[in-house]
Amino acid sequence: MKAYLLTVFSGEQAAGNPAGVVVLDDWLDTATLQQIARQLAQPVTTFVVHDESQYAVRWFSQQAEINLCGHGSLAAAAVLLEFGEQAFGDAGTETEVAADVETAAEANTMTLTSEHGTVIVRKDGARYHMTLPGWQPNRSPDLKRYLKQIGLPVIDSFATRDLVLVAESPALVRQFTPDMAVLAAIADYHAVILTAQDGSDGYVLRYFAPKIGIDEDIATGSAQCSLALYWLEQLGRETLKVTQLSAQGGAFVVRQQGEGHISLQVEVRLVSVLNLP
Fold first, then answer.
1. In the chain, what are the domain boundaries?
2. Between these two residues, 171 and 126, which has the higher pLDDT value?
3. What is the C-alpha to C-alpha distance for residues 109 and 120, in angstroms, rounded to an integer?
4. CA dihedral (124, 232, 221, 28) positive or negative
5. Sequence-ordered alpha helix ranges (H) in 91-201
6. CA–CA gap between residue 169 and residue 194 (Å, rounded)
7. Where in the sequence is the signal peptide annotated (predicted)?
8. Percent of the chain with pLDDT over 90
9. Does the pLDDT of residue 171 top 90, yes or no?
10. β-strands 250-256, 261-275: how paired?
C-alpha cells in the first residue's frame, strides 16, 4: 500500500497545504483509517476506493474524520490523474478499474463522491480546477452570542456549515490572536472563519477548526464554499483572488460555476511517495 504526499494551494508566495492520499482496494474499518492518518501526520489524509464505477473518498485529520475537504479532494484527484491505474496497486489490474481511470485521465477530469457531496476536479496544464457547492449565508440572530465570546469587532457575520466573521481590513484578520479554547467550544459549527475584503477583486481569510484537531488550517478549499458566493455578490465580480493568511499561506482563484456552485483554480505539487506496511 502506497501513500502519496502532496502540497495543495501553493503559489509564488504560498507554500500550500500538505495532504496525504492512500488508494485502497476496499474500505478498511474507521479505526484503521484513523491510525494511518495519524501515522502519515499530515493535516488531512484522503482515502480513495473504486466503488461501483465511482471514486469514493473519506477524509481524516490526525484526530477525526472530517467532511468535504477541498485540499484533500484535489490531492486525491491529482494522484489519480497523474498515476492512473498504477495508483490502485493490485486493484489497478482489474479491467473495470483500469478502464475507468484511463477514461478519466484522457478527459483530464475526476469525479469524487462522498456522503457529503460530489467534487469534480479537472486538470488544465499545470493547474487544477475544482467544482464545489457554494453555500448561501444564514444570518441567524443567535450569532451575536458567539461574537461576544470571540471578542473581535466585525462589520458582518453569518453562518453556513461554518461561522463566518467579516472584519474591516486584512490587517485585522492577520493580527487576530484566537483563543482556541473558546473556538473549540463553539459546537454548532464545523469551523470559525475570519475574512475581509482585499482590494476590489479579492478577499483574505483565516480558518480555525480546533474541535477537529486543526487549530488553524494552512489553506482550506472547503472554506470557499462558505465565502465565495458572499464575496462575489459583495464585490460584483465574476472572478476573485483569494489569499489565506496562515503562516505558510494559501492561494486560490475562485469564480461562480453555475447555480449554487463555485470553482477553484489552484496548483498541486507531489512531494513524495511512501510505502506503508
1. 2-132+265-275, 141-257
2. 171
3. 7
4. negative
5. 95-107, 144-150, 170-175, 180-184
6. 11
7. none
8. 53
9. yes
10. antiparallel
Q: Phi/psi of residue 38, each to 5°?
A: -65, -40
- Mapped to the 3 state alphabet, what secondary structure does 120-149 carry? EEEEECCEEEEEEECCCCECCHHHHHHHHH
pLDDT tens for residues 37-52?
Answer: 999 999 899 999 987 7
Residues 6+ apart with CB under 8 A from 29: none
What is the SS3 assignment for 196? Answer: strand
How far apart are alpha carbons 218 and 207 in whole angstroms?
A: 8
Residue pair 194/152 in contact by the 8 Å Cβ criterion: yes
Q: Which residue, 121, 83, 94, is CA-closest to 4?
A: 83
Q: Is the pLDDT confidence value at 90 over 60?
A: no
pTM summary value: 0.75
pLDDT of amino acid 91: 46
pLDDT in tens, 224-268: 999 999 999 999 999 999 999 998 888 889 999 888 899 988 888
For residues 132 and 67, give the distance between their C-alpha atoms in angstroms, rounded to a whole number: 13
Same CATH topology for 2-132+265-275 and 141-257: the answer is yes
Span 2-132+265-275 CATH architecture:
Roll (3.10)
Q: What phi and psi, each to the nearest 5 degrees, are found at residue 194?
A: -110, 130
Contact yes or no for 128/77 (Cβ under 8 A): yes
Give the domain 141-257 fold: Diaminopimelate Epimerase; Chain A, domain 1 (3.10.310)
7 Cβ contact partners less than 8 Å away, ≥ 6 residues apart = 15, 16, 17, 18, 19, 268, 269, 271
